[in-house]
Every structure is written in structure tokens, then in C-alpha cells.
Design brief:
The chain is an alpha+beta fold. It has helices at 2-11, 57-66, 135-145, 191-200, and strands at residues 16-19, 25-27, 34-36, 48-53, 81-82, 85-88, 91-97, 103-109, 125-132, 152-153, 159-163, 166-172, 184-188, 206-208, 211-215, 221-226. The chain is globular, with a radius of gyration of 18 Å.
Length: 244
């Protein structure tokens, strides 16, 4: 945790807003809470797990390189690359690893004006990124079973959903999730009602230390936490952006 905290707080310049007894820490860039916790599990480094929606991506890259961040410049699905940047319409993106092997990304609309000053990552919105070995199967799970509506789609087949004002991404990948820890936590007002609804849809749940865990169609672990047990405002009934 000491090494991980040094990376997030010194190299990415995130500000810790909460420290917990188990050694874990909460960051809240752009108002979205990120939970960094000690684990013996191995990260799924072949899939980006978290992204920052930045301003001035080229300037952000220069600042991160100056801080010693190593970018992953491997080819991706024949998309055009410019140095550390890769163009995945409608975004320019770049990817790197944290100190623990977790894959992170930064992105900005390709139409953004050139020469913008770098925004601090601590001020940027973030999105969790869930892997999907079968993107159509994953979309059926999130759109037909959980009733999320896509709010944006990418050239690589990835799709963005929104819950309680926070966005998350489901992206195609040949890798598989670690399956060892929750990648997204939904904070709800009525845990019993949400559990009953998941069971009605045939989704198995497991209660672990005050949270309820379940898996999506791709093996990503998702979590429900009741508002009374969390300092995060409730996202009642997931509050998805629902289909019309």
C-alpha cells in the first residue's frame, strides 16, 4: 500500500479523502470515489480498469512522463497511434500502469482544441472500465437485465453507461477480469429490494462484510452497498439511465 499510495499521490497527484482501518484509502477525483485497497490478488493488467477524462491530454502526458510514469505504447486493433496517443474515435487516449500492475487510461475528445493546459487528474472525472470477452453478451446483460441504456459508443465496440450521475465503460477484450474483488460499487437505499430484484432475474448474490456481490456475464465482480453503511449518497435502484 505504501508503494501504491506513493504512485497515486505523488505521481498522479491525487488527494486522499478518507483512510480506513484496513489500510485502504479513498480518492475522489472529479467527485467519483476510487477505493485503493491492500490485496493478495493479481491485477488484470491486460484490461484498463480506470480512466480519467482529461483536459489537454498532450500536456497531461508530458507532465506524467516528467513524473516518471511509463506509458504502454503497444498496438491496439490497428487504431492510429501518435507517440503515446492512440485515436479511438471519438477520443484520443493513452494508457499506462500503476505501481501494482493495474492498467489505467486517460482520454480526451479528439475534437478538443490543441494546446490546452493540463488539468490536474484530481479535478478530472473518472470512469471504471469493465472487460467483456463477448461485448454483445455483456450489452445484453447490462441493457436487458439491469436496464441500463448506452449513453455513448466507441469505435472499438466499447459502450458507456451511467448510474447515479457516474459513468462506467464496458469494453471488448481478449483478457479476462481478475474476478477477485469488486470493480464497481452501487450505493442503494433499499438493499433487500435490490437483492430480490437480482434474484428475480436469476442473478446469484453473495454477502461479504456488509456488501452484496454479484457477477456480470463476463465475470466482473459488482457490489451493492446500502446508503446507511456508506458515506456516499445513495444511487436508488442503481439509478441507471434507462431505455425509453
Amino acid at each position: 500500500m505504501r508503494r501504491a499510495r506513493a504512485f497515486y499521490e505523488q505521481q498522479l497527484e491525487l488527494v486522499a479523502v478518507e483512510e480506513r482501518a484496513d489500510g485502504s484509502v479513498i480518492y475522489a477525483p472529479g467527485g467519483t470515489r476510487i477505493h485503493l485497497f491492500p490485496s493478495r490478488g493479481k491485477p488484470a493488467g491486460d484490461q484498463t480498469q480506470l480512466g480519467f477524462d482529461v483536459i489537454g491530454i498532450r500536456a497531461v502526458i508530458r507532465r506524467l512522463v516528467h513524473k516518471g510514469v511509463q506509458f504502454d505504447d503497444s498496438e491496439y486493433m490497428n487504431f492510429k497511434r501518435e507517440g503515446h496517443l492512440i485515436h479511438i474515435a471519438p477520443y484520443n487516449a493513452a494508457f499506462f500502469y500503476d505501481s501494482e500492475g493495474n492498467s489505467l487510461g486517460i482520454w480526451e475528445l479528439a475534437s478538443a482544441p490543441a494546446g490546452l493546459e493540463a488539468a490536474a487528474l484530481n479535478d478530472c472525472a473518472t470512469q471504471a472500465n469493465l472487460s467483456a470477452r463477448d461485448i454483445q453478451r455483456a450489452r445484453r446483460f447490462y441493457e436487458e437485465r439491469l436496464a441500463f441504456a448506452p449513453v455513448e459508443e466507441f469505435a472499438d465496440g466499447g459502450v458507456v453507461y451511467e448510474a447515479g450521475g457516474t459513468q462506467f465503460i464496458v469494453s471488448p477484450t481478449t483478457g479476462k477480469p481478475s474476478g477477485e474483488h469488486p470493480q464497481i460499487a452501487f450505493v442503494v437505499r433499499n438493499m433487500r429490494r435490490e437483492i430480490d430484484e437480482l434474484h428475480r432475474m436469476g442473478i446469484t448474490t453473495e454477502e461479504v462484510e456488509g456488501a452484496v456481490l454479484f457477477r456480470d456475464s463476463e465475470g466482473n465482480v459488482l457490489s451493492l452497498t446500502e446508503a446507511a453503511r456508506s458515506s456516499i449518497p445513495a444511487q436508488s435502484d442503481f439509478q441507471p439511465t434507462r431505455k425509453p
